[in-house]
Amino acid sequence: MTSISIIGSGKMSSAIAEVATRAGASIQIIRRSTSSSSGDRPNVTYGALGDELTGDLVVLAVPYNAYPSILEFYRERLRDKVVVDISNPIDFTTYDELKSPADSSTAAELAKQLPEGAEVVKAFNVNLGDTLTAGTNGTTTTTVLFAGDYAEAKIAVADLIEASGMRAVDVGPLSRARELEAMGFLQIVLSALGKTRNESGFTLLQ
Amino acid sequence: MTSISIIGSGKMSSAIAEVATRAGASIQIIRRSTSSSSGDRPNVTYGALGDELTGDLVVLAVPYNAYPSILEFYRERLRDKVVVDISNPIDFTTYDELKSPADSSTAAELAKQLPEGAEVVKAFNVNLGDTLTAGTNGTTTTTVLFAGDYAEAKIAVADLIEASGMRAVDVGPLSRARELEAMGFLQIVLSALGKTRNESGFTLLQ
């Protein structure tokens, strides 16, 4: 069975926990504080920042600008993990540009900072949270686009997605994260403009 | 009534001619040679490279690397036209990168080269030709994403799209062409990998 650690406790953390629940995965959520909250899931083990990561898959469900502080705690402990980068590094003051280098991506920059053995997969960044929670995008099954350089890591992510009842589409090597981040940015802009609902958005039709 | 000149005679030229036909537009197609062919449309006026452009909208339906030779003929004559850039400047030897500058787009680079008065709109580059010809993407109405800096130019393009029975979605200023080109690139890669059919592809669900 897949095991997953989700670092972060915002909307995307919750959406991915729901995906992992549908997939029957063993789930850990790492948050700032250990205190329980009324929204806690019975099937999730909660931990605090700095606690050991129990999942083989580790999802960074925090804003891009929180990556440095997460890496302070976990850089070495991400060795031999599949690290899932879901970020859309948008400048939210202007909604007019990505903060990642124009010829790169958050995912590729993250990969450079991790120890050997950590395998980065870009995934879920072109999905608004509600489409993951529901498993549907408009009237279709939610499609999750992902990219990465390591076959086994990609299979693990695809298995999680498909076990949760969604469709997984491999778009290629981690260098394609640049295009996934452009798409994620565009979708968030369209969402902010009211041109897509929270329950729908971009998809790849069959 | 809208009038449109389409420069180029390949698959996208034909697809956009079909869109313009459905929209009831007056259509001119500019091609290398004036000789007629069996596929000629009765509702289209054909011209040769160098002939006057009769359309208010001018679609560059040629590969990106043919732009310099088109501009030799037409740069000055694009003044006061709405210039529609549909290109996906992919390196087709590797399918691994865009040829436009990483922090810009074909559309933005084109705009810099045109005389004042020419108004560039990026459109149709995230649509595989068959989805324009049919007006459908999978089981949905085809959605055309477009970007530009001039309101009237964008309205003219949106009117053409909607009069043809498709859905037009304004994604913002011409700087968003960078993201549209990333999306177009990704779609062509997925199409080449057999992960989308010619009759479907990316869309924005409602």
TrEMBL record, chains A, B:
Among InterPro entries, the record links this protein to: NAD(P)-bd_dom_sf (IPR036291), P5C_Rdtase_cat_N (IPR028939), STEAP_metalloreductase (IPR051267)
Under Pfam families, the record lists: F420_oxidored
Residue ranges of every copy of the Pyrroline-5-carboxylate reductase catalytic N-terminal domain listed in the record: 4-89
User: What does the record give under GO molecular function?
Assistant: oxidoreductase activity
Q: Which domain of life is it from?
A: Bacteria
Coiled-coil annotation: which residues?
none
UniProt cross-references to Gene3D superfamilies, sorted A to Z = NAD(P)-binding Rossmann-like Domain
Keyword terms: Oxidoreductase
The identity of this protein, by name, is: Pyrroline-5-carboxylate reductase catalytic N-terminal domain-containing protein
Q: What species was this sequence derived from?
A: Arthrobacter alpinus
User: Taxonomy-wise, where does this protein's organism fall, top ranks first?
Assistant: Bacteria, Bacillati, Actinomycetota, Actinomycetes, Micrococcales
